[in-house]
């Protein structure tokens, strides 16, 4: 490995993924080396760089690569259970050597430092990487580590489309096609004539900006429907219908009851020019939202994007949306009455959406990790199945196919029984 590649590893700002050791480390107590190996393996894996000081400079010593690798491999196999999987690389130069130990992430069971009496293991000690060091794991982290599959980071992309009648933007022409429009129009229908005049004076910029800035509040209205009585509510999706259910232990889960007073007021450039009172929509609606205890809401509006963030000591959920494009017409084919111009009558805006979730485990213990994970996935499910433009398009196609099939069945039935009374 050349020095430029080593420098990339040294420059990793996430200390949880890299550790620097000087050459005496190669002669350290096997239990200390084993603790480092299992701590990395039980987190995300990554690198131990031997021959680098804490200030990220070269130590300047020579290293016997073969001998050092063999010793570390023996420790990984004999002092760790299950054995920790390793790879090695080596940088040799006149101003000092660097041994790169790549620790692979655990595959199923968590790794432990073991002490033996003969062939029998009599003690297991579990460590996990935390910040720039390691720590012993508690029961909640150990339960988490024994899960075969888990996600500490979730990144999901989606898209959203909003279309409107250019002569009457307060009229919901999306109803029955995209259910999320009901939450958007809870705000849009309150626009007055002065607001509409302002919007249409610079339609492309103002309408795109307005939808962008309203989105976080509309999505909170949607969440309030799902989490009215408990944040543990889940979604059941059948072939034709969607329903929600609340697990029996939900009443015992610590919660924060969010009212409109806990929702940040708009600060975006578009809403600041309008008389629309976002807070009034929440005051006049039966808004009630249960979130995991300690969760706060943050909303950031900028000219080209917006972010809705749910912050909890155990996790963070961020939903970002940015403007993709504005166009005249409708975003899907439709037959209009003769003489009616699609482009003149309608317009639509498309947005890019990004759902990000990060859990603070194992740096922060979380006895409710499984429940928190399900809560986060319910929000992700809401975006992907209720707000995602691709899903709306698929439903439109299915609806057209159903209509065609119904028409064909009616024609065939009429051909079999061409009775005038049947036709009526």
Describe this structure in a few short sentences.
InterPro entries: Schlafen_AlbA_2_dom, Schlafen_AlbA_2_dom_sf. The protein has 424 residues and is an alpha+beta fold. The chain folds into 3 domains: 3-145, Schlafen, AAA domain (Methyltransferase, Cobalt-precorrin-4 Transmethylase, Domain 2), CATH 3.30.950.30; 153-387, no CATH class; 393-424.
Description:
The protein is an alpha+beta fold and 424 residues long. It folds into three domains: 3-145, Methyltransferase, Cobalt-precorrin-4 Transmethylase, Domain 2 (2-Layer Sandwich), CATH 3.30.950.30; 153-387, no CATH class; 393-424. It is 34% helix and 27% strand. It has twelve helices and 18 strands. It has helices at 3-10, 30-41, 65-78, 139-145, 181-188, 193-201, 203-226, 278-284, 342-345, 369-387, 389-416, 420-423, and strands at residues 18-21, 46-50, 80-81, 86-91, 98-103, 112-117, 120-125, 127-130, 133-136, 153-165, 234-237, 242-245, 255-258, 289-292, 296-301, 305-312, 315-328, 346-359. Strands 10-18-17-16-15 form a five-stranded antiparallel beta sheet. Strand 1, helix 2 (30-41) and strand 2 (46-50) form a beta-alpha-beta unit. Helix 5 (181-188) crosses helix 7 and helix 6 (193-201) packs across helix 7. It is elongated.
Residues in helices, as a percent range:
25-40%
Q: What is the terminal-to-terminal distance?
A: 82 Å
List the domain count as a whole number: 3
| String of helices and strands | HEHEHEEEEEEEHEHHHEEEHEEEEHEHHH
- Summed over residues and divided by their number, the pLDDT gives a mean of 87
Name the features.
single chain, 424 residues, alpha+beta, Methyltransferase, Cobalt-precorrin-4 Transmethylase, Domain 2, 3 domains, five-stranded antiparallel sheet, four-stranded mixed sheet, 18 strands, 27% strand, elongated
